[in-house]
Amino acid sequence: MATNRLFPLSLDAKETACLAKTGEEEEAWLWHHRMGHLGFTSLKLLSGSKMVEGLPMITPHQRVCEACTKGKQRRETFEGGKSRRATRPLELVHSDIAGPFETTSIGGSRYYITFTDDFSRKCWVYFLREKAEALDKFREFKAMAEKEVGQPLKVLRTDRGGEYTSRLFDDYCREWGISHQLTAAYSPQQNGVAERKNLTIMNMARSMVKGKRLPKKYWAEAVQVAVYLLNRCPTKSVKFKTPFEAWCGRKPSVKHLRVFGCVAYAHIPDQRRRKLDDRSEKCIFVGYAPASKAYKLYNPETEKAIISRDVVFEEDSCWSWDEEVRNIKGMFFDDGEEEGGQGDEAEMGGAEPLSPPSGGSGVALTPYSSGTSSS
Ligand SMILES: [Zn+2]
After folding, report:
1. What InterPro entries has UniProt attached to this entry (predicted)?
2. H-helix or E-strand containing 183?
3. For 49-96, how does the pLDDT look when each residue is reduced to its tens digit (9 = 90+)?
């Protein structure tokens, strides 16, 4: 996108059709982008079955989204298996580690670890510098989750990665009476829930980053937002409820969602302003800060993160990177960098690139209320 916020369009028949979009279609597109490129079938299910608050009725569309196409990697069929499902939260938790990523994240991480509750399919993600931090993150997750749900974590299912089979990990599980199930080596099917969740997360993260042409180091922000969104998306394993609701018993709201990676202006309080005209700071929207009910922004020029409730978004815009930055080989996930396919948790959308979602005026923010930690 050009710095003047106009989208250069070269018109051919297909693109002309885009310009004739109806308001309804634009709205569907906006939500496709806000929900991390969630497919229209899932969007329709979310809105039609009233699984979330604040989502308008969505009508499916046929067009192809370039970011979705690029973001999605080879499809792999995982046999889901007919293993017994948990009957309460924290009866069984699946965990997996992804990485190392080629590029260190803004926060200095090279891995992430997920914990997925079998009963609700709600997922939590933590970022790691080293795999050895897995036990610390598991401790943190266990304390938080048990406090939320008021029940003990019973079974943890993981693969045989060294980080899960260390003496310390073993001792910790024994101490807390957690049964640690290790899946057979080279048999990802057995750890299917965690593996599929990872694929779904990566597909969504890639689409969001590619959709906004962000550099690679934004992967962790995208992964975190993908997990946040997937907890508010339909999953095949829980009928007519989002994982969020299956976990805590109330419907999530999506009113506060904005398009990941768009340009956002953080209001600068009077006392911090140097000049009268510097009323806001231009940043990139990189996520939700649920604890403080605010948005996470990042200023690529100062390399500083900002948490703010007072934000104006330009959801159809992308940051204009200097040529220098843009030419760095492989923006974010290179095509083919990550093996894997479509998870079963949420179907990603198919639809078209060129047209930005909705007409561009910024939307003033009201603080939102919903959500749990990094989940
Ligand atoms: Zn898309």
Report:
1. GAG-pre-integrase_dom, Integrase_cat-core, Retrotran_Ty1/copia-like, RNaseH-like_sf, RNaseH_sf, SH3_retrovirus
2. none
3. 999 999 999 887 777 888 888 777 655 455 555 678 999 999 999 999
